[in-house]
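Here is a tokenized protein:
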Amino acid sequence: MLIHKFNARTAIVLLIILIVAALRLLSFYGIGPLTMFTPVGAMALFAGAYFKGRIIPFLFPLLTLFISDIVVSFFVFPQLRTGILYSGWQWTYLAFALITLSGKLILRNVNLQTVVLAVLAATFIHWIVSDLGMCIQENQFSGSVYFEKLVSALPFELRFMAGTALYGAILFGGFELLSARYAWLRLKYNDTTV
């Protein structure tokens, strides 16, 4: 990324993502009914929608996820750590990369309908990829085991969807309100900056 392409709009989007990443760490202190009620899905959709380019939309959400995972791995749940992260982290990162991609594709025009569709797509992607990864990680892949994992994950995925929807409303609604007030935050259709 060239320094002259890093503009004030990009800095605001990045700041919003970093604030949301910090909120992820706070969600771990609500263990119990708030498990999986995190802003990470919304963060990935937001980056996909507002960052341009092929690398930057994926880099910032995955990097902030990695940094917060390091903190969680060493200070919140050290007993679950294998290496520097947790077992099966690759599947989680794949899911969030795909969620970011869905944000790029679905949220070309940010409005209520596209945000709702993106939240549903993010939840579906997280549900399918994470549970597939668990089956493969545990060397137990079969149709029946996969189906059992999908069913048992429903309460977690409903909280994931609720977190993605709530934080998505805050992120997208807040940024659109700021963009309406400050014209320099609006991205021109043919703008190629990040």
